[in-house]
Amino acid sequence: MSYETIIGLEIHAELKTKTKIFCNCSTKFGAKPNENTCPICMGLPGTLPVLNEEVVHLAVKAGTALNCKINKLNKMDRKNYFYPDLPKAYQISQFDLPICGAGHVDIETDDGKRIVRLNRIHIEEDAGKLVHMEYEPYSLIDYNRVGVPLIEIVTEPDMHSPQEAVTFFRTIKSILEYGGISDCRMEEGSLRCDANISLRKVGQQELNTKVEMKNISSFRELQKALEKEEKRQKELYDYGEEFRIVQETRRWDAGKGKTVSMRTKEDANDYRYFPEPDIIPIVVKDSLIESVIADMPELPVQRRERFINGYGLTEKEVDILISDKFLSEYYEGLVNLGADKKSACNWLLTDMFRLVKEKEIEFQDIPVKKEDMASLLKMVETKKLSVTAAKGVFEDMFNTGKHPEEIVKEKGLGQISDSGAIEEIAVAVLEANPQSISDYKAGKTQAVGYLVGQVMKQSKGKANPQMAREILENKIKDM
């Protein structure tokens, strides 16, 4: 039996504000447990919430960047449910009048460009964080995250594979970063998503029962979770046990590599929504929308076009560079400092990518200053340092934060471009390798590569390899 996969996402992004949505507590990540709390965000009796104006501004900005209709009149609602990390036993959110209505986002797939429709974007407060203690019969709660402002981006069920869902999630992350709407630090929980997935027979029009995958905060885990849940549902349908697929919330257990049932999925009426009585309706003025449009920074689509037209890079290279705002800014900074456009791109997409992955850090946390990286590239370009030596220097820069010239001086790595010094080494190498000379004269031109390697070895990587090759070839021709 052939099935069609149907996926919709609910993406939660913490907004880039200094204070919480309804109080003056800091939103800074990494504070001591329960340090950034007050009676308002803890929901103590007698307190009243005051809406942070910057939250409205950033939500409108997100809606504009994602091609949404901005609802000039919207309101806050109470979403009632009890959970230990929600101290008020309700969440202030938006129900029937969200701040942003329908929108859309274009994504690039293997089958070409696709449009994913957005149902809405609404603003709400975040909940706290449960810390489950290993080998202890209890859990702890950190309320610092309570009241941190969120937008929830809700899609229509327009994606048809786990890979499409990951591509869409990456696209949203990029747009939010470029727009300065969220820092999107997934490792800190400021960007995460819930994924709704169902299967139906190919050609069937109506949707089948969906299952929600809760709180996924990495692209890799989103793909794995959806693939496993897709496989689980397909097997149930193949066995004719449709009744076993129930509307429920499941979580992804990365350790066991499977999805696990958490609870039966609630419907909207289970939350007993009603208008938040302590916050008046929100009126979005035309002047705010106009100012957001006027001040909108360059988004990924515009930067992609500019990089392709201005830097002579391939589309694939540009797509990788602009996939991360900070990486693209780092690259452009190198070019503005005089680095060769192609060389700078090659270094970032090879050596820089490798070390970022090894260290498991984000590009915004790269420890090498743009100025120092530009200096290293200049040393290679002017033949003061061989490419081989430069790679070692770069790794030291990444690990220590030192300037490249300091490392070169400490390790004595300056490239030898003195023809006399290289010629002396070349003569010794030729005397020791008569067979390579014979091979080269017999038409095996690759033999000179071995000889160059010997020169580099004897010079401890300092010899200018191009100069060494020219000297060796000239010496052999004169023999």
Care to count the β-strands? 15
Number of helices: 15
The radius of gyration computed from the alpha-carbon positions, rounded to a whole number of angstroms, is: 29 Å
Strand content: 15-25%
GO biological process, one term: translation
Subunit structure: Heterotrimer of A, B and C subunits.
Protein name: Aspartyl/glutamyl-tRNA(Asn/Gln) amidotransferase subunit B
Organism: Clostridium acidisoli DSM 12555
Task: Describe the 3D structure.
This protein is an alpha+beta fold. It has three domains: 3-288, no CATH class; 298-411, no CATH class; 419-477, Orthogonal Bundle (Arc Repressor Mutant, subunit A), CATH 1.10.10. Helix content is 40%, strand content 19%. The chain is built from 15 helices and 15 strands. The strands form four sheets. An eight-stranded mixed β-sheet has the order 5-6-9-1-10-11-12-13. Strands 4-3-14 form a three-stranded antiparallel β-sheet, with no helix packed on it. Strands 2-15 form a two-stranded antiparallel sheet. The longest helix is centred in the middle third of the chain and has 20 residues, at 219-238. The model has no long low-confidence stretch (mean pLDDT 90). It catalyses: L-aspartyl-tRNA(Asn) + L-glutamine + ATP + H2O = L-asparaginyl-tRNA(Asn) + L-glutamate + ADP + phosphate + 2 H(+); L-glutamyl-tRNA(Gln) + L-glutamine + ATP + H2O = L-glutaminyl-tRNA(Gln) + L-glutamate + ADP + phosphate + H(+). Residues 329-476 form the Asn/Gln amidotransferase domain.
